[in-house]
Amino acid sequence: MYTRSAKQSKAATIASFKISHILAKHKKAFEDGSVLMEAGETLFGDFKNKTLFMSAIRKLQLSRLTVTRRIEVISQDMADKLKHDIMECTYFSLQFDESTDMTDTVQLCIFIRMVFNYMLAKEEFLTFFSLKGKTPCNGGSLSCSWKIAEHTDLVLHTDVRWLSRGKFLERFQELLPEITAFLDERGDDTQMLKNEKWLTDLTFLTDITMHLNTINLELQGKGKTIIEMISAVNAFKSKLQLMIDQLRRKDLKHFPSLKARIPQLNYDTYEAELSNILGQFEMRFYVCSKLANIASFMTYPFSCKNIEELATEIATQFNMNSCSDENELVQIISDIHLKATASDTNFWCFISEDKYPNLRKIALQLTAMFGSTYLCESAFCEMKIIKSKYRNRLTDNRMSSCLRLALSGYVPSYENLNGVNYNHNKVHTFAPHAFGGPRSLEFVSGDRSIV
Fold it and tell me: How far is CA 437 from CA 126, 440, 441, 442, in A?
């Protein structure tokens, strides 16, 4: 009898952990666990063994404080699993980004991308904390209720989440006649909104921003690599050069909005603007451009034409001996057995670490690099849902726990969580010395490089 009671109690505790995990994963409030208790009577009202079901439900511990503790314990379990993976991985990179929560507090989000010796890469939420600063929030929406048109709302751009710029400009341009009429009725000054040069600049800005949004969308999604980013950026730079050449010939096929204002066009001005954007891309992605040849080689090693030049680039970028690199390059390019597996996506898994130590190390390091800050961007979207106006007093630690459960790919060890106490000092502490010192930070990439 005692054994049966103990098993039922353990099962109820495990169920409580699982329900708490589901609540956090779906970004629900802690007190929502009590809803299940209230729904039990309705769900099982017509069941013959209703009493048995209700008895089991009543044993569930789903109060707000209990759910909070459960979420913290699960978060600690996931953090322990992450720490273990960090100690086991060969290289890792960090991705940083910051945004503001609904209280205008600056929050820093950090993701980690780990690569293991068998070439498996894993991306995980690392930590999240407040920078204790505040910035003004420019977000929101402006309702255009005075117009019955295709768009009833004007998406207002926020500096923090910039992806909406293209849509905002496009809708603003389409609604501009109605906006101008509305402002005229109010007696506001609309001289600028009717200025021909300003209107032409607006159409150019709309078109080019949509192009920028396109490349940004290409880099969205989990698991994007540095090689994919280099490919996308190089393609966009080529596209910019193509548009510059076409503007010189007064060809506006890539500028649909600008086409409508041909009489007012100053082609030289917009050609110069495109050249400036191209220059910005060259400058901002300078480091990536230096990796382009190496990335191309790693994608298909047997396309290398100049071994000496590539070996020099590898030695410079990865602090290696160019002579050793040359020897490995000559060997791998001449390896008939490896050439037969060149099209395999797991090609570098077949490479002998003893025979090609440098090349394998480069492949691991490139695999460890992030391709964009998409993970941080998506995390901030989750943050806005979790820390809403109804939960604006959520502490940083609990916010981090909720985000970990919502974003992490780790599966909690529910069976082992029963009886575990939450250790506040153990969770979310990811100092470099905890991961084995300088070795762990040997190669770190992202928006901000750490050496």
Answer: 17, 6, 7, 9
